[in-house]
């Protein structure tokens, strides 16, 4: 039986790189916590780096690395030399980049890392890495493929199944594409593409005229892409693509996996236009209009039904199986798997919240005074949140949260196996900001 790579409850994910203003150097953040992967990149599979499963890694000012967590997932074995400037994770391992572009990689499936230097960026599938140089040459290593490629400008990846691994797709300056890895039938042979998107087992590429080509596993978005143009952006979830037109109408395709078709059913028709952005859970989508009204479709257990019928919402957030929408007054409406009653807590009924964060099955909302309210599944962080105020940022693993105050002190809660305990004491820590590298 094929297992979905979007079943977050079986994965514990890298939370955040926590950096001390006294001890650790600032580095770049790749969207490696659940909240960023789900909410900042158009869906989990479009995050630029697949998150680590059970370990942390942080840089010091001298470029040395401190790693902790499960030793089988990178919590031990970090390089003992210095000079590293950035760390990239996948589910099983870490890869660290030096200022001269040399790479160290450690833990499972980390063998085969390049021994030369000059690399500027690293990408990840679930179990593999790919590093690129300024001249567009690529070296890949890890579980599935040890290979080199040349002349590319950007690399993208699928999530892959639970086993073995995902695939990489690399784009050349002329817009031609090369794919390698797990399973890549139908890679386009023409050129002119400008960006690539992914589900767990398929890719979709768009051209400047808005035309789309998709490939990979057929019923997970690899076929069925629209044959006409004028699309502006593509969004994805586990096995479905949803493309937005210039008029704000939506076309969805894919939506079939072991559980059957779900994420296409109920998508807005061609006569329902004006949407500006699409959000996703594992098996559902929610689209927002300028008036703040919302349409949701897909698996009803994952937020495909139950969306609010009023308007005025400004942003939508998601876990793997629920949505939460925020209004200008800071009130929240949440739908999907809510885990209320014996299994969890319902969304707050008060207002004044400014931002929502998420993990696999829980939300955490922040007020201007830095107080936090949580809801969702009990053992995913819906209980145990701090009762004081002054927090400025929240990060997440699959089932735990980390909140940071302005003085750099840290409070964690949630599943102890996923970082809900064991945070460093004292002050002076800072969360790694969302900066583009």
Largest sheet: 4 strands, antiparallel
Number of helices: 1
What distance lies between the first and last C-alpha atoms, to the nearest angstrom? 39 Å
**Molecular shape:** globular
What number is the mean pLDDT? 83
Arrangement of strands in the largest sheet? 7-8-9-10
**Uncertain spans, ≥5 residues at pLDDT below 50?**
1-31, 429-437
Q: How many whole angstroms does the radius of gyration measure?
A: 21 Å
Q: Please state roughly what percent of the residues sit in beta strands, choosing from under 5%, 5-15%, 15-25%, 25-35%, 35-45% or over 45%.
A: 35-45%
List the defining traits of the structure above.
single chain; 437 residues; mainly beta; Methylamine Dehydrogenase, Chain H; 3 domains; four-stranded antiparallel β-sheet; 1 helix; disordered N terminus; disordered C terminus
Brief characterization of the structure:
The protein has one helix spanning 34-39; strands at residues 18-20, 55-59, 65-69, 84-89, 93-98, 103-107, 121-124, 128-132, 138-142, 147-149, 154-157, 167-171, 177-181, 195-198, 202-206, 212-216, 231-236, 240-245, 250-254, 277-280, 284-288, 294-298, 315-318, 322-326, 332-336, 344-345, 355-358, 362-366, 372-377, 391-396, 400-405, 410-414, 429-431. By secondary structure, the protein is mainly beta. The chain has three domains: 1-184, no CATH class; 200-309, Methylamine Dehydrogenase, Chain H; 338-437, Methylamine Dehydrogenase, Chain H (7 Propeller), CATH 2.130.10.
């Amino acid at each position: 039986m094929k297992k979905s790579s979007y079943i977050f409850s079986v994965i514990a994910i890298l939370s955040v790189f926590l950096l001390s203003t006294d001890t650790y150097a600032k580095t770049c953040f790749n969207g490696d916590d659940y909240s960023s992967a789900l909410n900042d990149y158009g869906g989990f599979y479009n995050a630029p780096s697949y998150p680590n499963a059970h370990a942390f890694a942080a840089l010091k000012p001298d470029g040395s690395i401190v790693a902790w967590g499960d030793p089988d997932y990178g919590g031990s074995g970090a390089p003992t030399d210095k000079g590293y400037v950035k760390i990239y994770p996948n589910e099983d391992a870490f890869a660290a980049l030096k200022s001269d572009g040399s790479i160290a990689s450690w833990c499972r499936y980390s063998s085969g890392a390049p021994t030369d230097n000059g690399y500027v960026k690293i990408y990840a599938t679930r179990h593999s890495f790919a590093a690129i140089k300024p001249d567009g040459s690529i070296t890949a290593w890890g579980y599935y493929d040890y290979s080199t490629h040349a002349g590319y400008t950007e690399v993208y990846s699928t999530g892959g199944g639970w086993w073995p691994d995902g695939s990489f797709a690399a784009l050349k300056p002329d817009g031609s594409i090369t794919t390698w890895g797990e399973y890549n039938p139908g890679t386009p042979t023409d050129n002119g593409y400008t960006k690539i998107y992914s589900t767990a087992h398929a890719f979709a590429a768009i051209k400047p005229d808005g035309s789309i080509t998709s490939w990979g596993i057929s019923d997970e978005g690899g076929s069925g892409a629209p044959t006409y143009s004028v699309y502006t952006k593509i969004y994805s979830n586990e096995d479905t693509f949803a493309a937005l037109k210039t008029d704000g109408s939506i076309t969805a395709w894919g939506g079939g996996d072991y559980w059957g078709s779900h994420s296409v059913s109920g998508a807005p028709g061609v006569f329902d236009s004006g949407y500006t952005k699409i959000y996703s859970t594992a098996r559902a989508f929610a689209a927002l209009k300028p008036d703040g009204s919302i349409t949701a479709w897909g698996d009803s257990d994952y937020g495909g039904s139950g969306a609010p019928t009023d308007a005025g919402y400004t942003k939508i957030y998601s876990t793997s199986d629920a949505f939460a929408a925020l209004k200008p007054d800071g009130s929240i409406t949440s739908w999907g798997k809510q885990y209320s009653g014996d299994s969890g807590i319902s969304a707050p009924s008060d207002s004044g919240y400014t931002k929502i964060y998420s993990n696999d099955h829980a939300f955490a909302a922040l007020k201007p005074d830095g107080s936090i309210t949580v809801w969702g599944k009990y053992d995913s962080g819906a209980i145990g949140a701090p009762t004081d105020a002054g927090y400025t940022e929240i990060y997440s693993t699959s089932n735990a949260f980390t909140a940071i105050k302005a003085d750099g002190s840290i409070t964690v809660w949630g599943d102890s196996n996923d970082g809900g305990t064991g945070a460093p004491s004292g002050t002076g820590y800072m969360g790694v900001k969302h900066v583009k590298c």
